[in-house]
Design goal:
Blueprint lengths: L1 E2 L8 E4 L2 E13 L2 E11 L5 E7 L3 E4 L3 E10 L4 E5 L9 E5 L1 H4 L6 E5 L2 E2 L2
Antiparallel strand pairs: 1-6, 2-3, 2-6, 3-4, 4-5, 7-8, 7-10, 8-9, 10-11
């Protein structure tokens, strides 16, 4: 956990139990009062933009996001199959499968995994 004053652009934080990436932030100072941090956030799954104003000392959870460089290999009628092309051994990539409800409408060549769920 970090203080809101330590947030930087591009960091993924948890707001109301959901993961958001900081798109923009501004420190708003007032006379003889600790500054507020005004942040614009993008939800990593829905891409919804929200704005929040946080007290500079407000504790914020950093969200660990795994970003995988993947290539879609095939659909077997039940699961989508992917190969992790960013693995340590490019000659033998790690392969995994995801059900359609977990994948959503991803059309990227990378996947973001949070809490064992795809945040495409």
């Amino acid at each position: 956990m970090i203080a809101a004053s330590d947030i930087t652009k591009g960091v993924t934080i948890q707001v109301e139990g959901e993961p958001y990436t900081v798109v923009n932030l501004e420190k708003v100072t007032r006379a003889q009062v600790d500054p507020d941090i005004k942040v614009k956030l993008r939800h990593i799954r829905t891409h919804e933009l929200i704005e929040r104003t946080l007290d500079a000392h407000y504790p914020v959870d950093i969200v660990p996001i795994d970003r995988l460089a993947v290539v879609f290999t095939h659909w077997d009628g039940e699961f989508y199959h992917f190969a992790d092309i960013g693995s340590d051994n490019p000659d033998d990539p790690d392969e995994f499968q995801l059900p359609p409800d977990m994948l959503g409408n991803a059309a990227n060549s990378s996947l973001m995994i949070w809490n064992s769920r795809c945040c495409c």
